[in-house]
């Protein structure tokens, strides 16, 4: 089962197990409707927890889970990650894609043809950066309209321009 990171538990609040969570999603409002998460320090050591209550305030989710009902249990959960399964992900608008959907796409330059495959997407402060494996080395390309002209998930192709500037 593939799990996707959606939040990071920052710290407990109060005595009844409430947790402050930093959303790691473009859909933070989904914290108000999700009924369960996979919680753990890594995807390999998760436990399924049902949500008892959820609030969203000042950019943070405040969650209470079954099985985390004291401050001590909440303190033990600090630093954990919240994951969801692929079928629980929010649907993306047509002009957007999940980062994991981009990894493995073939990269084609408008002038040079096929140049490689996206091997990673790095989230930088200014914009995302695509790591492209050319077979011989990895090349970093900013994910901005100036360089990325089209992303076609159905065909599995990312089209870009001026790739030679990054070599």
Automatic annotation (TrEMBL):
Residue ranges of domain Ribosome maturation factor RimM PRC barrel in the record: 100-160
InterPro entries for the chain: PRC_barrel-like_sf, PRC_RimM, RimM, RimM_N, RimM_N_sf, Transl_B-barrel_sf
A Pfam family it matches: PRC_RimM
Segments forming domain RimM N-terminal: 6-85
Superkingdom of origin: Bacteria
Its job: An accessory protein needed during the final step in the assembly of 30S ribosomal subunit, possibly for assembly of the head region. Essential for efficient processing of 16S rRNA. May be needed both before and after RbfA during the maturation of 16S rRNA. It has affinity for free ribosomal 30S subunits but not for 70S ribosomes.
Annotated domain remarks: The PRC barrel domain binds ribosomal protein uS19.
Protein name: Ribosome maturation factor RimM
Species: Chlorobaculum parvum (strain DSM 263 / NCIMB 8327)
């Amino acid at each position: 089962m593939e799990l996707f990171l959606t939040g990071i538990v920052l710290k407990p609040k109060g005595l009844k197990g409430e947790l402050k969570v930093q959303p790691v999603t473009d859909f933070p409002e989904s914290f108000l409707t999700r009924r369960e998460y996979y919680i753990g320090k890594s995807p390999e050591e998760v436990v399924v927890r049902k949500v008892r209550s959820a609030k969203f305030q000042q950019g943070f989710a405040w969650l209470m889970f079954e099985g985390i009902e004291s401050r001590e249990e909440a303190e033990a959960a600090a630093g954990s990650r919240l994951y969801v399964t692929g079928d629980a992900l929010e649907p993306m608008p047509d002009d957007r894609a999940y980062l994991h959907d981009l990894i493995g796409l073939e990269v084609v330059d408008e002038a040079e043809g096929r140049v490689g495959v996206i091997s990673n997407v790095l989230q930088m402060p200014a914009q995302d950066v695509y790591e492209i494996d050319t077979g011989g080395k990895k090349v970093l390309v900013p994910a901005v309209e100036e360089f990325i002209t089209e992303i076609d998930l159905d065909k599995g192709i990312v089209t870009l321009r001026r790739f030679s500037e990054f070599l």
